[in-house]
Amino acid sequence: MKGSEAERCAETFLLRQRLRLLERNYRCRFGEIDLIMQDGEMLVFVEVRLRTSLIFGGAAASITSFKQAKLLRTARHYLAGLKMAPPCRFDAVLLSGQSGEEMEWIKNAFEE
């Protein structure tokens, strides 16, 4: 499974959880956000991580403080383009196993 396949898998899963897709692969000079979704009134920035091995700590360990800072800057850039900023959260969808068969959805994976 490749990164783009993992993102599609996570997107499908979140759509089934009744989230609504707003943006896919939002990019700006600060970085990229895999999925931007809406959960009721909440704007959700989603980081999708795929790891086939636990050698380096697995998918969760790959969301370092540096990566979190990039996501925060990118989210601020996205929010600057809105008339009014809604409540927001950062979620992570972690896929593991050889074909991404194990999935974990972490709501509020980190905060500013």
TrEMBL record:
Sorted UniProt keywords: Endonuclease, Hydrolase, Nuclease
Gene3D superfamilies assigned: 3.40.1350.10
Highest rank taxon of the organism: Bacteria
Any one GO molecular-function label of the UniProt entry: endonuclease activity
Record family assignment: Belongs to the UPF0102 family.
Protein name as catalogued: UPF0102 protein SAMN05216402_0361
Organism of this sequence: Nitrosospira multiformis
